[in-house]
Amino acid sequence: MEKPRYKRVLLKLSGEALKEKGSSDTISPQIVQTISRQLADIRATGVELAVVIGGGNIWRGLSAAHQGMNRSTADYMGMLATVMNGLAIMSTLEDMGVSCRVMSAIEMNSVAEPYISRRALHHIARGHVLIFVAGTGNPYFSTDTAAALRANEIGAEVILKATKVDGIYDSDPMKNPAAVRYDHITYAEALAKRLNVMDSTAFSLCMDNKLPIIVLNMNCEGSIHRALMGEKVGTLVSD
């Protein structure tokens, strides 16, 4: 059996990944099933897996703040949205026989464990899939930043950032058919070219700690598995 290149990874999922295009439903059970099946397949390879999930399918704190809502309040509402998404994935994974733990940066003991780094390390070493919710627990920080922070805390070897496109381009491929995709780019080049890999805080955390990021399309069947096996998939951002 082929051996994965990485032993421990963190997958960053946007909340929008759980929503069916064109549907008014914020969470699609069918899409959650599809995503959970991929997570189960990752775990079956022996890779230790953690997931950070966004909440944009339910609520966007920054958008609400731009419309006049208090920014801190709007951001806390966004954190609660990530908890709902995390619970949806947890429930589906457990139905598939995959052991997992939801860990929240905001204490809500009835539905999730409080995030404690040593406890997280214990869980992941025992083979549980970790689902980190509620961002960093602080307003003004995105779930990208939470992903970079948690990945460094648990000693992940790489962040897999699942997006709607198959990597990083020199311009928006949705608007520019001639956009060129990068197979590999350094942190410095991504900064100089102002490519939106992650928000600046998250990106700085990865750059300072030399934590590679692979940006890929999760909807492309087999892309995550191929990345774990060390194949060239999407765009690699590294030193």
Written overview of the protein:
- The protein has 239 residues and is of the alpha/beta class.
- The chain has one domain (8-238): Acetylglutamate kinase-like (Carbamate kinase, 3-Layer(aba) Sandwich).
- It has 8 helices and 11 strands.
- The chain has helices at residues 29-44, 61-66, 71-95, 117-125, 143-154, 187-192, 200-208, 223-228, and strands spanning 8-13, 48-53, 100-104, 113-114, 129-133, 158-163, 168-169, 181-182, 184-186, 213-217, 235-238.
- The protein has a 9-stranded mixed beta sheet with strand order 4-3-5-2-1-6-10-11-9, with helices on both faces. A two-stranded antiparallel sheet has the order 7-8.
- Helix 1 links the parallel strand 1 and strand 2 (48-53).
- Helix 1 crosses helix 3 (71-95).
SSE layout and pairings?
Blueprint: E1 8-13, H1 29-44, E2 48-53, H2 61-66, H3 71-95, E3 100-104, E4 113-114, H4 117-125, E5 129-133, H5 143-154, E6 158-163, E7 168-169, E8 181-182, E9 184-186, H6 187-192, H7 200-208, E10 213-217, H8 223-228, E11 235-238
Parallel strand pairs: 1-2, 1-6, 2-5, 3-4, 3-5, 6-10, 9-11
Antiparallel strand pairs: 7-8, 10-11
Helix pairs in contact: 1-3, 5-7
The number of distinct helices, counting runs of at least 4 residues, comes to: 8
Tell me the Rg in angstroms. 17 Å
CATH homology superfamily name: Acetylglutamate kinase-like
> How far apart are the termini?
30 Å
Q: How is the biggest beta sheet arranged? A: 9 strands, mixed
CATH class: Alpha Beta
Strand content: 15-25%
The CATH topology name reads: Carbamate kinase
Strand order of the largest sheet: 4-3-5-2-1-6-10-11-9
Mean pLDDT: 91
Q: What is the CATH architecture term?
A: 3-Layer(aba) Sandwich
